[in-house]
Amino acid sequence: MLSTEAGAEYLADLFNKARILQPSQDLTVLRAGHYVVAMTVKDGTHLAAGGLVASNPGILGGTPVFQGTRMPVKTLFDYLADGLSLDYFLESFPSVTREQAAAVLRYGWQRIEGELAA
User: What's the topology of domain 4-117?
Assistant: First the structure.
């Protein structure tokens, strides 16, 4: 569990990476327990999965993409559903890191697990 100070540092780092200059004025955060579930930024960007996934109407019409890329998250799931490997996906789309892909898959699993536990 992150302390309040560490959580604030995490969000500040996330904003720096996203080039958002005034997080205290521009951010709305939705939390579920200790986890950041979704964030909305004044420019219309919605962040989900703890900031791993972004959706902005000006980027691919709002299609959810890996944060900092223009790569739709759905493409990862399509590749895996078609029997292709994670390594092949990463080779095909070098803008997505292994850590990003694994974290999104983990997040999906945690959401399913949480839904079934409720």
Answer: Arc Repressor Mutant, subunit A (1.10.10)
